[in-house]
């Protein structure tokens, strides 16, 4: 069971810098083979199908808690894409070709089907597929796959970071480099507990550490690379049997945090009239507001008193 909050994990810069091709690049981090939809669904189905979870509870708790964070990562990347797309086209009469800029964008589907919003596909417009999910049922094999998956995801984040200087994209990618690094270390430590092999000696893959990326370095300076959240107030606490000791790169002490991190308001996406979104006029907004007031038995006097 999941609990949802009307928040995102970090503040994303809201800038007037439309860049549809940057959005296309960031799509790889959402719907690519090593994107957030892949990490989410790999861990999600592994958690659904986990065998002997009572005997192997620390490993089960680890996959469960990381799954919850991955939902937030899908959310973050989607908002980064939205920010890159915002303002790409103009509100004009249809004969003035208000969507003309879309024909030169690398992915026109953002404009044809998504009203300039994130879509579940990769940087070439290929839909994400469930064939990217790996769930063998074998604990060590799944953990090894997860470690490889997070390393592949890290490689792609680094490449996308180098493709664009869009502030919204870089803020999100920098943060995810740090949090993805946490998951790399977590699965490495889990493999060490399960097999006795010190997989942390392979880290980082690729070898360039996060401090070379400005937007990532500031999150590491705040200790974001040392914290693993339970994403529950009462469950998944045995991850402290795996997430313990020090970070393999800088020897900082690792910390299990009960619950979720502090969230930030989700930015509001403005209307895109040329995309017929949301397709509600000012007059219709007023009409909807009046119907809601009537349904809730709210009078103008009550509204004024509350405000």
Which short descriptors sum up this protein?
two-stranded antiparallel ribbon, two-stranded parallel sheet
How would you characterize this protein structure?
- This protein is mainly alpha-helical and 307 residues long.
- The protein contains 9 helices and 4 strands; from the N terminus they run E-H-H-H-H-H-H-H-E-E-E-H-H.
- The chain has helices spanning 20-31, 36-48, 57-85, 109-112, 139-163, 167-195, 214-221, 282-295, 300-306, and strands spanning 7-8, 227-229, 255-257, 264-265.
- A two-stranded antiparallel ribbon has the order 1-4.
- Helix 1 packs antiparallel against helix 3 and helix 3 runs antiparallel to helix 6 (167-195).
List the helices and strands and how they pair.
Layout: E1 7-8, H1 20-31, H2 36-48, H3 57-85, H4 109-112, H5 139-163, H6 167-195, H7 214-221, E2 227-229, E3 255-257, E4 264-265, H8 282-295, H9 300-306
Parallel strand pairs: 2-3
Antiparallel strand pairs: 1-4
Helix pairs in contact: 1-3, 1-5, 2-3, 2-5, 3-6, 5-6, 6-7
| Regions with little confidence, pLDDT below 50 for 5+ residues | none
Number of helices: 9
Mean pLDDT figure: 95
Placed side by side, the strands forming the largest sheet appear as 1-4
The largest pleated sheet is described as:
2 strands, antiparallel
Radius of gyration: 22 Å
Q: In which range does the helix fraction lie?
A: 40-55%
Order of helices and strands: EHHHHHHHEEEHH
Kindly name the structural category: mainly alpha
End-to-end gap = 36 Å
Strand tally, please? Answer: 4
Strand content: under 5%
From the spread of the alpha carbons, the general shape counts as: globular
């Amino acid at each position: 069971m999941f609990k949802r909050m009307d928040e995102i994990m970090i503040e994303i810069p809201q800038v007037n810098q439309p860049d549809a091709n940057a959005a296309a690049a960031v799509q790889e981090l959402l719907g690519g083979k090593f994107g957030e939809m892949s990490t989410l669904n790999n861990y999600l189905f592994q958690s659904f199908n986990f065998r002997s979870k009572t005997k192997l509870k620390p490993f089960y708790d680890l996959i469960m808690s990381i799954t919850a964070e991955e939902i937030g990562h899908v959310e973050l990347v989607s908002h980064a894409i939205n920010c890159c797309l915002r303002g790409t086209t103009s509100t004009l009469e249809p004969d003035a070709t208000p969507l003309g800029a879309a024909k030169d964008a690398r992915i026109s589907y953002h404009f044809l089907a998504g009203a300039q919003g994130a879509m579940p596909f990769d940087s070439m417009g290929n839909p994400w597929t469930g064939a990217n999910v790996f769930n063998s049922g074998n604990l060590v094999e799944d953990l090894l796959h997860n470690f490889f998956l997070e390393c592949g995801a890290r490689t792609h984040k680094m490449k996308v970071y180098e493709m664009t200087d869009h502030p919204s994209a870089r803020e999100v990618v920098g943060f995810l480099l740090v949090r993805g690094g946490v998951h790399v270390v977590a699965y490495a430590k889990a493999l060490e507990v399960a097999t006795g092999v010190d997989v942390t000696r392979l880290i980082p893959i690729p070898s360039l550490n996060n401090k070379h990326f400005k937007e990532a370095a500031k999150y590491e300076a705040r200790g974001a690379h040392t914290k693993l959240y339970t994403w529950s107030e009462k469950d998944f606490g045995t991850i402290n049997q795996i997430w313990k000791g020090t970070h393999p790169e800088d020897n900082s002490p690792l910390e299990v945090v009960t619950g979720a991190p502090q969230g930030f308001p989700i930015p509001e996406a403005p209307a895109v009239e040329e995309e017929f979104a949301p397709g509600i006029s000012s007059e219709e907004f007023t009409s909807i507001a009046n119907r809601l007031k009537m349904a809730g038995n709210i009078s103008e006097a009550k509204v004024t008193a509350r405000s």
